[in-house]
Amino acid sequence: ETGVTQTPRHLVMGMTNKKSLKCEQHLGHNAMYWYKQSAKKPLELMFVYNFKEQTENNSVPSRFSPECPNSSHLFLHLHTLQPEDSALYLCASSPSGGGVRWNEQFFGPGTRLTVL
Amino acid sequence: QKEVEQDPGPLSVPEGAIVSLNCTYSNSAFQYFMWYRQYSRKGPELLMYTYSSGNKEDGRFTAQVDKSSKYISLFIRDSQPSDSATYLCAFPNFGNEKLTFGTGTRLTIIP
User: Fold this and answer.
1) How far is Cα A107 from Cα B54, in angstroms, rounded to an integer?
2) Predicted pLDDT of residue A99
3) Which tens digits make up the pLDDT trace of A76-87?
4) Chain A interface, mutation test: which of B42, B97, B101, B105, most A Cβ atoms within 10 Å?
5) Contacts of residue A42 in chain B, CB cutoff 8 Å?
């Protein structure tokens, strides 16, 4: 595997279900991100982790719970979601340490989530 | 006023045409400018970045920055059907790792 991988690619869940999204990066990066992408809206940054520590929580509802056990893996635990949470969830990684390379984010293919 | 404005399209042009994609921004602190390309069912990938006013060329792609007008453009020459994708402008935030994205412009090149 190369780059950033995400599983599953598609997920349909009911409002009472609990599910998890998984992201893995094979680039040796130390920063990882979760984004939400909805039609006609800019990418919404949800969470940022640097060296496994959460450095950003962009006012995300508690029904989304991130977990970063190491610099290569990132999870997004989902529970009691709402239909408006249906979207493409993207994971990204980047080098840390400042400079332009810090901002060059590499994205996974995303998980298309549908909440019924 | 939104921090970044980008026309979401969709934009359809015939193969071989020159395509112009644009973003305006309001934050004077933005010093670097990026363009990402996102194919259907894929994540965004970095296409080009620049940090100065003027033009930067990479093959058929040219990124143009006008800091005085807070306006950036991406030009695609001799457009190909394989250029059909959504193009997102992105602006690195000073001092941290975050990016501010535009909405993306969906482009279709018609053979």
Assistant:
1) 28
2) 59
3) 999 999 999 999
4) B97
5) 4, 100-104
